[in-house]
Model the fold of this input.
Amino acid sequence: MTLFAYGFAVILIAAGAYHFINPAFYYPIIPAWMPRVAANLAGGAAEIVLGAAILWPATRTWGLYGAAGLMVLFLPIHVADLLRERPVIGPRPVAWIRLLMQFALIAWLVWEARRS
Done:
């Protein structure tokens, strides 16, 4: 496993924990049609579980594929943010970059999973 994968796992766990520490941070990016509290809690729990799975050798492949799946599930949130008049995180070019990076991240996670 690459150092980048370890770093991603740690960031995933930290971001997941932050869903519980400061849920209001995530609410603005969650589309209005989604149940905000449930989506935030589910996202945070999934990030923690998948980050831990990536760090544990016995579940690493599952964790990497699961993280890729989670990033796919997050795509509608990034698209919805991009379609807003004023995206939540940065100006429109930043929202485009974030969306494109999401696809690169998915591809990298699948590649990393196939290597493990």
